[in-house]
């Protein structure tokens, strides 16, 4: 039995496959339809870091390979302003983490290290 005062009903935790939905109005009129619920892809992503040369020019980028959009992003506490985006910039050396949650409530956490201790050099040879 479903609340008849609602104009829309959402069903959660429905298994994948073919389902029959029957709607009956206040006068007893019914309408039946078939609804197919597909399987959702499990959430997965990779977190890439770009090491900074010096200072605070490190970057983290999340590449989401599967899941059900839209996604929410929960970056670690050492990232300011809690950005809701797949890339953050202006980072210093350290370990960072990201928890992504998809629209069906699946969450996954990944971590990455930004290393600013690596020495970079460029050179040219003249012949």
Automatic annotation (TrEMBL):
Protein origin, superkingdom: Bacteria
Q: What is this protein called?
A: Adhesin
Organism lineage? Bacteria, Pseudomonadati, Nitrospirota, Thermodesulfovibrionia, Thermodesulfovibrionales
């Amino acid at each position: 039995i479903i609340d008849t005062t609602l104009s829309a009903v959402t069903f959660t935790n429905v298994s994948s496959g073919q389902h029959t939905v029957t709607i009956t109005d206040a006068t007893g009129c019914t309408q039946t339809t078939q609804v197919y619920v597909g399987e959702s892809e499990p959430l997965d992503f990779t977190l890439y870091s770009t090491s900074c040369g010096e200072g605070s020019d490190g970057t983290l980028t999340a590449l989401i390979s599967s899941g059900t959009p839209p996604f929410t992003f929960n970056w670690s506490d050492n990232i300011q302003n809690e950005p809701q985006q797949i890339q953050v910039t202006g980072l210093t050396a350290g370990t960072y983490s990201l928890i992504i949650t998809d629209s069906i409530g699946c969450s996954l956490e990944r971590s990455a290290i930004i290393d600013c201790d690596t020495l970079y050099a460029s050179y040219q040879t003249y012949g």
